[in-house]
Design a protein that fits this description.
Largest sheet: 6 strands, antiparallel
Number of helices: 3
Distance between the termini: 51 Å
Helix content: 25-40%
Radius of gyration: 24 Å
Number of strands: 8
Shape: elongated
Structural class: alpha+beta
């Protein structure tokens, strides 16, 4: 899936205006773009849709306004709706979706930073040696043997 560059530029401008000096973060994911405020997703874009995080309590009201439930594969995404780009003809219509989503994300406390991930090859038990420093078997004329270093 790729995203519509024109729609992304319009969303970026709307998020920038709504987030103000607190700022936002733009993240590329799953072939689209996502805008987070205060470490929480506010809005995103996919092929030709605006993805809005409205929360589980706001889904029915958003559907009544013309949105549809967001799905990923066969799974329905909780608290997220899609609005067709055709339903966002002017900046006012876009701001009506982006503004409340940014405020919702700003109202939540920031997420705690995650610990850095350790590469899988270096997950070792106490007393074990990394794989790279272990002697590797090699083929000799007499068969397989372990190198001694």
């Amino acid at each position: 899936m790729t995203y519509d560059g024109d729609l992304a530029a319009r969303i970026r401008a709307a998020v920038d205006a709504a987030a103000g000096p607190d700022g936002y973060r733009e993240i590329a994911m799953f072939g689209g773009l996502c805008w987070t405020v205060n470490t929480h997703m506010a809005v995103g874009t996919g092929e030709r849709d605006l993805m809005v995080h409205v929360g589980t309590d706001g889904v029915e009201a958003a559907i009544a306004r013309g949105a549809r439930r967001a799905t990923m594969g066969e799974r329905t995404m909780g608290g997220v709706v899609l609005v067709a780009a055709a339903d966002l003809p002017d900046p006012g219509a876009l701001d009506a979706w982006v503004g409340p989503a940014v405020e919702r994300a700003r109202a939540r406390p920031p997420k705690a930073p995650k610990a850095p991930r350790t590469p899988r090859g270096w997950l070792l038990r106490a007393g074990s040696t990394p794989r790279a420093s272990r002697p590797r078997p090699r083929r000799t004329s007499a068969g397989w043997s372990r190198r001694r270093s």
